[in-house]
Amino acid sequence: MSKISIVTKGFLKENPILILVLGTCPTLGVTTSAINGLGMGLATTFVLIMSNLVIALMKNYIPDKVRIPGFIVIIASFVTVVELSMQAYLPSLYEALGLFIPLIVVNCIILGRAEAFAQKNTVFDSILDGVGMGLGFTMALTVLGTIREILGSGSIFDIRIYPGDGMLIFVLAPGAFIALGYLIAVAIKLNKRFYNK
Amino acid sequence: MFLSLFIISAVASATLAFVYNATKEKIEIQKTAKKNAAIKNVLPAYANSPVNEMYMLPTEDGDSLKCYPGKDENGNMIGTAIETYDDGGFSERIYIMVGILPDGSVYNTAVLSHKETPGLGDKMDKKKSEWSNQFNGKNLNTFVLKVKKDGGEVDAITAATITSRAFTNSIARAWAAMQKGDKHE
Lengths: 197, 185
Prior knowledge:
heterodimer; A: 197 residues; mainly alpha; two-stranded antiparallel ribbon; 2 strands; B: 185 residues; alpha+beta
C-alpha cells in the first residue's frame, strides 16, 4: 500500500476504536470532556509511534519466544516516560487522566499494532502506521469527548455553551457506551460510503 | 533469548532512571505548588511558609492529620489549614482542606480530591456550586457539625445527603483533632 494510505487508514478505514474496536477501556473512561480525550489521545499516539519505531528496529533481534515480554517492556517504558513527563510538566492533565495513563500499557491498540504491523514492516512504515493509528485514535477520542462534554456538562473545551447541568448520564459510564455505540454506527456508515465495502 | 531480553531490560531501566532523575525535582515542585495553592485558598493572607511548618495532630480513631499553620510577619498565628478526610463518601475517601482561625471559626474550605457523583455529590466542590460556603464564618465551638437531617445545622446538598455528611464529618474530624491538641512532628 502507498505511504499515504498507511497513515490515512487509521482515520476511518481501520480506525482503531470505531472500526477495529480496540482500546475501548480508556476510550469510555477518559472521554468525559474534550480536553481529556485529546490529551489521552496524544499521549497514546506518542507511545504508539515510539513503540512501533523501536519494535520495528529490533524485530530481527527479539526471538519469537520472548517477543511479547520484550514488546511489553518496551511499551511500558515509554508509558512511564510519558507519565513522569506529564506529572512534571502538565499536572492538571495528569490529575484529570489519573489511573488511565499507566493503563496505556495495556491498551490493545499498541500491542496490536506491534504484532500486526511493526514486527513485519520497515521502520519508516511502522512510524507512519503509528502516526495514522494514533491520530485516528486521538480524533475519535476527541469527538467522543466533545459530544459527551456538550451533552453532559454544557461546555466544550471548558467553555460554557449553555447554563445549568446537561444530561448527566453522558458524563457517566452508561452515556459513554451510548455515545460510542452511535459513533461506531456513523463510522461504519461513512466507511460504506467512501470505500464501498 | 536471555541476552536479548537482558539488553532490552537494561536499556529500558537506564532510560527510565534518566527520565526519573530529570523530572524528579519538577514533580516535587508541582506537588508542593498544589498543596500551597490549597492552603492559600483556605487561610487569610500569611507571611510564612505553612508547608515547612507542618505538624501532625492525632485523631480519635488512631490516625493523624497534617496541619499547616499560617502566621503573620510577627509570627502570630493567623489560622491553621488542616488536611482532613472522611470515608463516608458515596464513592471513595474524600480529602478536604479546611482553614480554621484561632477563635475556632472556619475561614474557608477546599476539596482536594473526591470521586463523588457528577451533578450530585460533586456540588461540594466550589467549582460546581457555592454549597460549601455555608461553613465559612461559622464558629465550631457553637456550630453543630451535622446535617439538618441528623439534628445539626448543616444544609445538605439536595439528593446528596451522603456526600454532605462526609464533607461535614471531615471538618468535624479536623476540629476534634485540633481541640485535642497533642501536637507531634
